[in-house]
């Protein structure tokens, strides 16, 4: 028997078997640990859900929450109202006489560029004040009412007039004058 135990073959097989058994035991213990953690997590989650659903809410809590929501809503609406009341003064500047004719326009706020822009800019007939029509190149203008014809010489272009409008505002802003 002693001879058998001392045999190199027996020692080799024995240590391999022991190593295998230890690995199986370790894995089993590890697996058990992982499963117990998962189980603990689910149990806690379940307990929490049951506790939340059974939680007793007092009526005054709901009333307080509603009151807070109403106050927040009032503050937001008040701020919006104040913002809409802050209308820039230059929005009243919608017509002027330039080198040749009177021009009128509107202001549109571009949400894309986050700035006010001149729009619907057109010259008025020097004889009857009617907005004049032009070709798409603005090479001439004509009055649809009295048939005034600008001809092709000394034409004011809308992009030039727009630049002067912006410059007028810049100059007034720099000099501190209100419109
Ligand atoms: Zn006219």
Low-confidence stretches: none
How many domains make up the coordinates? 2
Report the end-to-end length measured between terminal Cα atoms.
117 Å
Number of helices: 4
Sheet with the most strands? 3 strands, antiparallel
Structural class: alpha+beta
Listing every helix as H and every strand as E from the N terminus to the C terminus, the arrangement reads HHHEEEEEH
- Rounded to an integer, what's the Rg over CA atoms? 43 Å
- Which range best describes the helical content: under 10%, 10-25%, 25-40%, 40-55%, 55-70% or over 70%? 40-55%
Kindly report the spatial arrangement of strands forming the biggest sheet: 1-2-3
How would you describe what is shown here?
The protein is an alpha+beta fold. The protein folds into 2 domains: 2-83; 90-175, no CATH class. The protein has 4 helices and 5 strands, in the order αααβββββα. It has a 3-stranded antiparallel sheet with strand order 1-2-3, with helices on one face. A two-stranded antiparallel sheet has the order 4-5. It is elongated. The model has no long low-confidence stretch (mean pLDDT 85). The structure holds zinc ion.
